[in-house]
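Lab intake sheet, docking and co-folding queue.

SAMPLE TYPE: protein with bound small molecule
LIGAND NAME: flavin-adenine dinucleotide
LIGAND FORMAT: SMILES
REQUESTED OUTPUT: full 3D complex as structure tokens
PRIORITY: normal
SUBMITTED BY: R.K., bench team

The fields below were copied directly from the construct record.
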Amino acid sequence: MIGEFIRTASPQESLGALHDGGEGTHFIGGGTEILRLGSLINPQKVVSLKGLNLSGIEEEKGIVSIGATTTFQEALESELVPRYLKEALLYCGSYTRRNMGTIGGNIALRRDDSYLAPTLIAAKARLILGDIASDGKYGEENIPIREYHSFEEHFEGSLILKIVLNKPKRFVASLRYARTMQSPAAVTIALGADISSDAPHDVRIAAAIKGSGVVRLIEVENGIMEGRYPTVEDAAAQAAQDLVLVDDITGSAAYKKYILTASVAELYKQCLDAISKGGAQ
Ligand SMILES: Cc1cc2nc3c(=O)[nH]c(=O)nc-3n(C[C@H](O)[C@H](O)[C@H](O)COP(=O)(O)OP(=O)(O)OC[C@H]3O[C@@H](n4cnc5c(N)ncnc54)[C@H](O)[C@@H]3O)c2cc1C
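RESULT FIELD (auto-filled):
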């Protein structure tokens, strides 16, 4: 149960309050997960991010920066947000929740049915994080979102300030599989690539798989970049090979394997189609 609600006015103050609060203290963005019935987060104290002025979307020379407390709905209503991210934002089917849930909160959760993580990893998004070092000094760093996912412990307690999309011409597409719009997804998967030449390069494929977490399909990424697959089905065949998949309420392990492979074939095909239509020119 939340016993204390702490208001702060700057990233430094928020981080200080989080550190001083000790175990059981969490930031609160939109609060949709923190306050969710049955949430695994059980905060004693929350540090509000409302007073930090972190919401809003800017664009400069094709680089789009999204403030961490921007809600899903605000991002959907912005002309600056790329279409591929809007598709992922709409995976949250509840208008009420889209009006409350923040993009920073979604990233911080690293959920295994994450709406946004696969797309943001495929887009090679970067995060601007605020942190307090062991000497007590406040600092900011700019990291690839894939690092945020790979080194979870390292970034525990960091404050996400901004999400930066600095590859305006990148191809990014995603797919989500759930029983209904409001149900948890078995698989959400995205493929991103630089399509400025006649073959995809700088490929990223990321999937949020219920029960397995957010993973990258690095072998398939490399196989595509090295031109190892004569057909999209050959790439798909590799997709679920090293993954440990589990049976759960969203579907069996065999079902998840099937949709992962089918999705890789579909997304890779879409990517090749985009190249054949002139790529990023
Ligand atoms: C019924 C229901 C179903 C849901 N289903 C899904 C789903 O299928 N997929 C999905 O991805 N999400 C789901 N969610 C969770 C949620 O709605 C979204 O993930 C939302 O984007 C979370 O953002 P928030 O601002 O509300 O997070 P909050 O609840 O405010 O915070 C969530 C966590 O993120 C941390 N946090 C928040 N902002 C920051 C920041 N700027 N920097 C660092 N840490 C931060 C908090 O400390 C907390 O630990 C569901 C929620 C509900 C209520």
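REVIEWER NOTE: The chain has three domains: 4-51, 53-165, 171-276.
SIGN-OFF: pending second check by T.M.
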